[in-house]
Specification:
Residues 43-80 are annotated as: Disordered. The chain is an alpha+beta fold and 80 residues long. It has one domain. It is built from two helices and two strands, in the order H-E-E-H. It has helices at 11-34, 65-77, and strands spanning 38-42, 45-49. Strands 1-2 form a two-stranded antiparallel ribbon. A hairpin with a 2-residue loop joins strand 1 (38-42) and strand 2. It is flat and about 50 Å long.
Length: 80
């Protein structure tokens, strides 16, 4: 069986991706304005950002212990 891989989404798929990106951007901006923390993905790892983020004393680019554990578990499941 030969499988081909598309490198770009269809027009409908691109519209859906654009809508999702816009919704996520608005939500992250709202959380920032409200002073709430957010968990995002950066450099292959989850990162907690925001003034009220768990694990106080971390910079915005350092993952928390919980985020490290979650990421390590995901790596283990992927066989890394």
């Amino acid at each position: 069986m030969n499988a081909t891989r598309k490198t770009s989404p269809s027009a409908e798929g691109q519209r859906q991706l654009d809508a999702l990106r816009q919704a996520v951007g608005k939500t992250l901006e709202k959380k920032r304005r409200l002073g709430q923390y957010a968990v995002t993905w950066k450099g292959g790892r989850p990162v907690v950002t925001g003034d009220d983020a768990p694990g106080m004393g971390l910079t915005s680019s350092e993952p928390t212990d919980a985020a490290r554990a979650c990421s390590a578990e995901a790596d283990h499941e992927r066989g890394r």
